[in-house]
Amino acid sequence: MSDPRHSVLLNTGSRMPLLGLGTGQLRGLENLMPAVDAALAAGYHQFDTAAVYRNEVELGQALRELLPKHGLERADIFITSKLAPRDQGPMAPAACQRSLDQLGLEYIDLFLVHEPGTEGLRVEDPQNSVNRAQSWTALEEFLSRGKFRAIGVSNYIVRHLEELFASCKVPPAVLQVEFHPRLAQTELRALCAQRSVCFEAYSPLGTGALLSDPVVLEVAKGCGRTAAQVLLRWAVQQGIPVIPKSSNPSRVRENAQLFDFELSQEDMDRLTGLDCGQRFDPEDPSLVA
Ligand SMILES: NC(=O)c1ccc[n+]([C@@H]2O[C@H](COP(=O)([O-])OP(=O)(O)OC[C@H]3O[C@@H](n4cnc5c(N)ncnc54)[C@H](OP(=O)(O)O)[C@@H]3O)[C@@H](O)[C@H]2O)c1
Prior knowledge:
By secondary structure, this protein is α/β, with parallel strands linked by helices.
């Protein structure tokens, strides 16, 4: 499917592309079509959506229309979606099927539990833990039926992951969390490496905030690249898949030019040195029981 040099091997034995298009806040066919078209032309093979983004229907439609134009088939691309926090627990099986139906797909390459918590429950409620275990069983069932090709979690902290490892039949293939030079996620990365879970970065540009960071700009100037390319390269050079979001076709193209240059060890270290634990996602998953 995707170039092995531009993808990572999952613990399922299949490969996941290192570069994907994030589609959070990309709603409506009029916004999705140009972004997806530019992404397919620029060589993106992964698309990241979620039930809560309310764009599964349009993303499915855009891909059905655009894949033939780019000489691609369904099997050439990798689609990720996620279980909404409102659907945790008993509603999970119906929600898994709904994502398949909305995307109009026979299978989804990667399906994630979006968050450890359940919408409507207080964060400290122990039912959060019961619900996410029940959700995981639903994901395992869709995996066993071939409806999901890989399953994983998002926004879990070490405690949530340890709980999952202790109770699951199938371990997660992927952990998707916020990751960029200001948020090193050292503990989670070490646990993922130890347990053969692929660590994937969302908000790899720090939601755009890191694009004006003076150190990022200096590194970018030094190697004749843009700030976005340097931030994305820093992650993929460590083998970490990234899913930058852009609604702008020229920025979608810019963000794909990552595989024709390398950052020096000095530049990698300068970017890594920016870690200060800064999180842009307003939700704090560490509070969820
Ligand atoms: N699992 C989760 O809970 C979770 C949470 C957050 C995000 N995500 C996923 O991760 C994806 C990306 O995260 P994100 O959207 O939060 O942040 P991001 O990708 O770090 O940053 C996106 C922002 O940067 C801008 N941008 C993108 N490329 C640019 C470039 N080359 N030059 C200048 N500006 C650029 C975009 O604006 P324009 O659109 O105007 O270009 C947008 O405002 C989401 O779309 C979603 O798929 C998952």
